[in-house]
C-alpha cells in the first residue's frame, strides 16, 4: 500500500459511480425512451391503451399481464431474446413498428421497463431447448397438420378453415388464423424453429392453442408448414 489516500479516493469514486447509480441512470433513460417511443400505443402505465394504440387491431400488448404471444420460454413465458426480437424487427401486419435503429443497450433497457410494469408477475422464462438430432418427416407432418391445424388454418394453409370465423383473442377481440402460405405474414418468424415454438407454446392471450405433442410430431408439422405451405410472398 504505497499510496493509501489515492486508494481511498478511488474507492470513494467507485462507490459513487457504482452499480447502484448506473442502474438508476439506466432506469431513468429507459422510462424516457419508453415514454417517447412506446407510450403512445402501449400506454404510460403499460396497459396497452395509449391514445394511438387503442384504435389498433390487434391491440398493443398490455404489459401489466406479462403475457406475450411470440414466445420460446418455459411455461409459455417470454425470454429476453423473444422480446428483443419483437422490438428490433417489429411485428409485421400489426401496428408494432421495428425499433432496430436503437442500440442493443437501449433495447435491453426497454425490456427492463416493460417487465417492470408486470411487477411480481414478471416472468423471465428460460428458453425451451430446441430439440436436437430429430429428423422431421414432412409427409407425416401433412397428416398431423390435417388433424390438428386445418380446422382453423385450412387445408391450404390460407387461414380459411371451418373454425376460422368467430375466433376471439384473450381480450374478446376478433382474430383470424394466420395465412400460413405467406412467409412475410409470420410475425414471430417463418423458420421451422419459430413454428416449433408457436405450436409448442401456443400464443398466450390469443386464439392459437398450445399442442402437447411429441417433439418429433411438432418438428414434422413445422417442416410441412415451412417447406410446403409457406411460399416466398
Ligand atoms: C404504433 C403503435 C406501437 C408502438 C409505437 C409500439 N408498439 Fe409494441 N405493439 C404494438 C401492437 C399493435 C402490438 C401487438 C401485435 C400483435 O398482437 O401481434 C405490439 C406488441 C409488442 C410486444 C409484444 C411481443 C409479443 O411477443 O407478444 C412488445 C414486447 C412490444 N410491442 C414492445 C414495444 C416497445 C418496447 C415499444 C417502444 C420502443 C413499442 N412496442 C412501440 C403497437 C406498438
Ligand atoms: C383454434 C384455431 C387454431 C388452431 C387449431 C391452430 N391455430 Fe395457429 N393460429 C390461430 C390464430 C387465431 C392465429 C393468430 C393469432 C394472433 O395473431 O393473435 C394463429 C397463428 C399461428 C401462427 C403464427 C404465425 C406468426 O408468427 O405470426 C402459426 C405458425 C400457426 N398458427 C401454426 C399453427 C399450426 C402448425 C397448428 C397446428 C398444430 C395451428 N396453428 C393450429 C388459430 C389456430
Notes on the structure:
This protein has 233 residues and is an all-alpha fold. It has two domains: 27-44 and 60-127, Cytochrome Bc1 Complex, Chain D, domain 2 (Orthogonal Bundle); 138-229, Cytochrome Bc1 Complex, Chain D, domain 2 (Orthogonal Bundle), CATH 1.10.760. Helix content is 43%, strand content 0%. Helix 2 (19-37) packs across helix 5, helix 6 (138-148) packs across helix 9 and helix 8 (192-201) crosses helix 9. The longest helix is centred in the first third of the chain and has 19 residues, at 19-37. The protein binds heme C (2 copies). One heme C binds next to helix 7, helix 8 and helix 9.
Set down the secondary structure blueprint:
Blueprint: H1 4-16, H2 19-37, H3 39-42, H4 80-89, H5 104-117, H6 138-148, H7 150-153, H8 192-201, H9 215-229
The structure holds heme C (2 copies).
Pick out its properties.
Cytochrome Bc1 Complex, Chain D, domain 2; binds heme C; mainly alpha; 43% helix; 233 residues; globular
Q: Report the sheet with the most strands, covering strand number, pairing sense and barrel closure.
A: none
Report the sheet-strand fraction.
under 5%
Element string (H = helix, E = strand): HHHHHHHHH
CATH class of the largest domain: Mainly Alpha
Number of helices: 9
How much is the radius of gyration in Å?
22 Å
CATH topology of the largest domain: Cytochrome Bc1 Complex, Chain D, domain 2
General form = globular
Bound molecules: heme C
CATH superfamily of the largest domain: Cytochrome c-like domain
- Per DSSP E runs of 2 or more residues, the count of β-strands stands at 0
- Total number of distinct structural domains: 2
- Percent helix, as a range, is 40-55%
List the uncertain runs.
7-17
Mean pLDDT: 91
Q: What is the first-to-last residue Cα distance?
A: 69 Å
SSE-based structural type: mainly alpha
CATH architectural name of the largest domain: Orthogonal Bundle
Amino acid at each position: 500500500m504505497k499510496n493509501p489516500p489515492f486508494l481511498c479516493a478511488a474507492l470513494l469514486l467507485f462507490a459513487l459511480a457504482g452499480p447502484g447509480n448506473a442502474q438508476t441512470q439506466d432506469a431513468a433513460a429507459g422510462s424516457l425512451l419508453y415514454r417517447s417511443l412506446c407510450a403512445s400505443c402501449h400506454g404510460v402505465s403499460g396497459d396497452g391503451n395509449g391514445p394511438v394504440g387503442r384504435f389498433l387491431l390487434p391491440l398493443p400488448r398490455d404489459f401489466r399481464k406479462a403475457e406475450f404471444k411470440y414466445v420460446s420460454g418455459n411455461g409459455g413465458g417470454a425470454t429476453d431474446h423473444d422480446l428483443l426480437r419483437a422490438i428490433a424487427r417489429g411485428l409485421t401486419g400489426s401496428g408494432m413498428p421495428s425499433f432496430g435503429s436503437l442500440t442493443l443497450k437501449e433495447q435491453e433497457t426497454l425490456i427492463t421497463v416493460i417487465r417492470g410494469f408486470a411487477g411480481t408477475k414478471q416472468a423471465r422464462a428460460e428458453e425451451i431447448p430446441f430439440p436436437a438430432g430429430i429428423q422431421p418427416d414432412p409427409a407425416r407432418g401433412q397428416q398431423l397438420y390435417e388433424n390438428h391445424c386445418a380446422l382453423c388454418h385450412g387445408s391450404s394453409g390460407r387461414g380459411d378453415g371451418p373454425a376460422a370465423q368467430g375466433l376471439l383473442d384473450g381480450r374478446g377481440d376478433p382474430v383470424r388464423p394466420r395465412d400460413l402460405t405467406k412467409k412475410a405474414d409470420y410475425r414471430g418468424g417463418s423458420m421451422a424453429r419459430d413454428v416449433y415454438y408457436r405450436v409448442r407454446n401456443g400464443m398466450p392471450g390469443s386464439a392459437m392453442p398450445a399442442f402437447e405433442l411429441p417433439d418429433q410430431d411438432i418438428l414434422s408439422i413445422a417442416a410441412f408448414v415451412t417447406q410446403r405451405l409457406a411460399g416466398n410472398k
